[in-house]
Fold NADH-quinone oxidoreductase subunit C.
Amino acid sequence: MSEENKPEETTVPTPPVGEDGKEEGKAVGSEPAKAESRPVENKTEGGESVGAESAKAGSSESQAAGSSESKTPAATDAAAERAAARAARLAARAAAEAGEPAPATTATPASADAGSDEEKAAKAQAAAEARAARAAARGAKTESADPSTPKEPSPNQPLLDRLVAILKAEAGEDAVVESFINERDAHRPYVIIHSSRWPQAALTLRNHEELRCDYLRNLSGVDQETHLEVAYHLLSLTHKHEYCVKVKTDREQPSIPSVADVWPTANWNEREAFDLFGIDFPGHPNLVRIMMPDDWVGHPLRKDYEPLDPEV
């Protein structure tokens, strides 16, 4: 502290002392009372009291809280504007796909005094317009499709027709129960073979010059509730063609001839179908369980399977 700002020192006069050593004009008993009644003032170096500092701190905190509260409506309005703009873009995109002019949207007010009800109404309106535009686009596509126009044949339809003709000629006229193109499976040709004709059909699929299905990619059992079936996914490495063959069997006594001697892949796959579905494969060299213990009761992947121990 500099000399100029240093407070002036005040000299307290010393009261006269009597013969008995006590100050004249003052009683000894009155000193504590005056000391207690004297106000205590805590001052800082700058001369300001502690109460003033706490008052200033409270004022600054209230100002900060007020500024944060004033920012909340603006942030809410900005979020509402972004949501409305996003919904408007979706509506315009759907309308463009349908070949219609983009629907007009109501701009959301950006003022700080916009209420939450107006924001909700704007969002609901934009969402309704987007839904209406999508529905109109779907309706336009449905109307444009002429029901009288025949469906275009699959690019693999000639492949399926030739497969059916070869199987009927080599394995028997009644060998093919059903045939179709599975469009969801990359237009793969599917045929359903009668179980009694399956051994000869398998040899035809592998050995015929136009088929050459020399690789069994997968064999899987399926529980259709009314019956069981096995799906064989075959691949011709020579012609780069893929087929799917299905063989149905009875649910009570399921049995399909084994093709493990035609495609070695079928060995373990047939054991798995036997283990999990209970399908018998006559002619298999070693038809035993492959996943469950030998003393396991039932077949876990059948839809009517009930475990003996529900906690297992």
Observations:
- The CA atoms of residues 60 and 66 lie 10 Å apart.
- The radius of gyration is 46 Å.
- The chain has a mean pLDDT of 78.
- The helical segments are 30-37, 50-98, 116-144, 157-171, 198-207, 266-277.
